[in-house]
């Protein structure tokens, strides 16, 4: 495991991530911070403050890391014992002037990981975890580039979209000295977080993990950040890295085609006034993501409703819901968040549910982060990095067994393995803790295995909301939408003043109307159909110097952070550009057989996972052929390893430019 020196850790950029010194903090500040801290992360921070791994034998340990539990299933007496010792150690560390923290070697880190995860982490994960903890600099600045600054300066790139992925692309391109422009159709940074501003909108991945790994995590106001604070975060990051001057907002990419003679992408854009312009670039990054094209289902009479009607991704702030009867179509992630936020303000809310969603117990889902906990995240050595680890490890690669189908397991489609059944039992017990209404439980309990769709986070708010007198969950199908309401398949008509579509996105056609054409004029939308594919979710055969972010086959649906995956993708993209330049080439694209083989192996692997189970019907992950083109099939550690750098053997490189590109 490569080691970061003490001097490197004291570099201001890394100090922001690993703990700001606190020589002037008083005892009350320390006490509040320690009382609100995650004890497993705190225990690791004590080692960084003292260099004493013996503390891990002396003090109580986490029992196991559990999803959505920041305390490692520890008892109250055990947590109190660690906190009491931590107070003394933190005071002593402060009084010593907060010297550079202790940095474990590989063997010592192995011991720390054994303690914090109760032995869950095997050797193959150590380098991957060490990089995210910033105990090595593997992930801090992206790949080490072999090309020259002059070569990179002659490789202009256009980025489509300025959501989290497009912003990240800009940051990393700027750091590498690659000229770029970002074209964004909306008025500001944010992507889906700017479009989706409906009441109650928030992330369902812990804020600590839904963060760029190179940015601090001490600013979050909630354990699961709300849409406004995510938008502020992205805006702050853009300002800190001065990306704004590189973005053309309210400008739409209409089309792009590959010009083989000049080895450039000719990108047609449209300004707000309707004027068109063609830009040239050697590289094109498509960062539109999978949640950019809202879906309104084909329901009889959908266009006949007389009142305000709009999708949650196109929220109309001018419409006041107060005192109105509201029909919400859809009870997936957006409906699940929206309905509790508007219940009580609206006179009545009818929620039309096609299929129920699984809810994971999460007492922190709407909880604010205390001032003490934020101080700990900002100052205690490496506490923030370990808190991030506690947030992601139990919900990412640690769940691999629970999402894999056991061929010998037969439970009538209700679960796919013994571990998966245990999750079902926990989820069902959680729901029964909020209601004994058997009719309601029958409506909200899925008939498919847990984890088969993206699992929603719940602190009891959903079931409490559904039991309100002014809210009705309708599990019957919709026969027709009329001018003044919704009629179900049994002929029951429920009046509505406002119609809200909480019906998700067309993830299988993520390009939408953008016409991208590669070698010999092949259209990417035509090549993909509704089964998009890309090598590692990033590069596409027949489309030179073209790169996807949050592209096909990259949605790690249960637990992984889109932002983390985007960082893996952008590291790989920089590696591809560097590969082109260092080989003296003008362009590179993955070999067709490499791309085809990767897609085949991906789909074969997905067929062994819960998402492909026959009981998981009406899933937006599945295309018309029952394939799962949007989902990531492997572990996140695999993706981290595979995206470190491209293998030139996987690519066709060409030097076909007939003229120098200025």
From TrEMBL:
GO terms for molecular function: monooxygenase activity. It comes from Mycolicibacterium duvalii. The keyword Oxidoreductase applies. This is Monooxygenase. The keyword Oxidoreductase applies. InterPro entries: FAD-bind_Monooxygenase_sf (IPR051209), FAD/NAD-bd_sf (IPR036188). PANTHER family: FAD_NAD(P)-BINDING DOMAIN-CONTAINING PROTEIN-RELATED, L-ORNITHINE N(5)-MONOOXYGENASE-RELATED. Keywords: Monooxygenase, Oxidoreductase.
């Amino acid at each position: 495991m490569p080691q970061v020196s003490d001097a490197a850790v004291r570099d201001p950029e890394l100090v922001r991530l690993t703990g700001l010194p606190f020589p002037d903090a008083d005892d009350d500040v320390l006490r509040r911070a320690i009382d609100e801290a995650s004890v497993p992360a705190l225990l690791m921070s004590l080692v960084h403050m003292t260099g004493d791994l013996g503390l891990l034998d002396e003090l109580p340990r986490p029992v196991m890391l559990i999803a959505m539990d920041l305390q490692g299933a520890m008892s109250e007496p055990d947590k109190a014992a660690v906190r009491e010792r931590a107070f003394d150690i933190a005071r002593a560390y402060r009084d010593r002037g907060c010297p550079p923290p202790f940095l474990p070697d590989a063997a010592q880190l192995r011991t720390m990981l054994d303690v914090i995860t109760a032995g869950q982490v095997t050797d193959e994960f150590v380098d991957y975890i060490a990089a995210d903890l910033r105990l090595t600099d593997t992930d801090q600045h992206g790949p080490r580039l072999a090309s020259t600054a002059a070569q990179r300066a002659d490789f202009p790139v256009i980025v489509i979209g300025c959501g989290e992925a497009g912003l990240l692309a800009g940051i990393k391109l700027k750091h590498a000295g690659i000229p770029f422009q970002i074209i964004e159709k909306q008025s500001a940074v944010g992507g889906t977080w700017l479009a989706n501003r409906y009441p109650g909108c928030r992330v369902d991945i812990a804020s600590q993990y839904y963060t760029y790994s190179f940015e601090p995590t001490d600013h979050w106001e909630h354990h699961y950040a709300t849409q406004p604070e995510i938008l502020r975060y992205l805006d702050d990051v853009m300002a800190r890295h001065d990306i704004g001057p590189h973005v053309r907002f309210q400008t739409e990419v209409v089309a792009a085609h590959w010009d083989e003679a000049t080895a450039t992408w000719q990108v047609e854009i449209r300004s707000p006034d309707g004027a068109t312009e063609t830009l040239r670039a050697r590289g094109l990054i498509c960062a539109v993501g999978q949640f950019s094209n809202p879906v309104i289902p084909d329901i009889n009479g959908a266009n006949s409703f007389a009142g305000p009607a709009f999708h949650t991704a196109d929220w109309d702030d001018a419409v006041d819901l107060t005192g109105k009867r509201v029909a919400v179509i859809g009870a997936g992630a957006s409906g699940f968040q929206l309905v509790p936020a508007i219940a009580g303000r609206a006179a009545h809310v009818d929620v039309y549910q096609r299929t129920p969603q699984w809810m994971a117990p999460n007492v922190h889902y709407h909880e604010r982060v205390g001032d003490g906990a934020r101080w700990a995240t900002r100052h205690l050595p490496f506490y923030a990095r370990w808190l991030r680890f506690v947030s992601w490890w139990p919900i990412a690669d640690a769940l691999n067994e629970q999402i894999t189908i056991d061929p010998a397991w037969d439970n009538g489609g209700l679960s796919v393995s013994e571990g998966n059944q245990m999750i079902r039992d926990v989820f069902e017990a959680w729901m029964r803790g909020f209601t004994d209404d058997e009719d309601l439980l029958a409506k909200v309990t899925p008939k498919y295995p847990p984890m088969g769709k993206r699992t929603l986070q719940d602190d009891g708010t959903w079931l409490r909301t559904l039991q309100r007198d002014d809210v009705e969950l309708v599990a019957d199908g919709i026969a027709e939408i009329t001018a003044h309401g919704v009629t179900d398949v049994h002929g029951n008509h429920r009046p509505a003043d406002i119609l809200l579509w909480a019906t998700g996105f067309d993830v299988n056609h993520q390009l939408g109307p953008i016409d991208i054409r590669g070698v010999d004029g092949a259209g990417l939308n035509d090549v993909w159909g509704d089964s998009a594919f890309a090598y590692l979710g990033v590069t596409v055969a027949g489309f030179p110097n073209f790169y996807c972010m949050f592209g096909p086959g990259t949605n790690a649906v249960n637990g992984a952070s889109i932002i983390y995956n985007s960082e893996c993708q952008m590291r790989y993209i920089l590696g591809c550009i560097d590969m082109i330049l260092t080989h003296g080439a003008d362009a590179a694209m993955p070999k067709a057989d490499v791309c085809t083989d990767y897609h085949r192996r991906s789909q074969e692997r997905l067929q062994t996972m819960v998402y492909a189970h026959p009981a998981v019907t009406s899933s937006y992950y599945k295309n018309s052929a029952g394939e799962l083109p949007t989902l990531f099939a492997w572990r996140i550690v695999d993706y981290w390893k595979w995206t470190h750098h491209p293998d030139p053997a996987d690519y066709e490189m060409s030097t076909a430019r007939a003229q120098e590109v200025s």
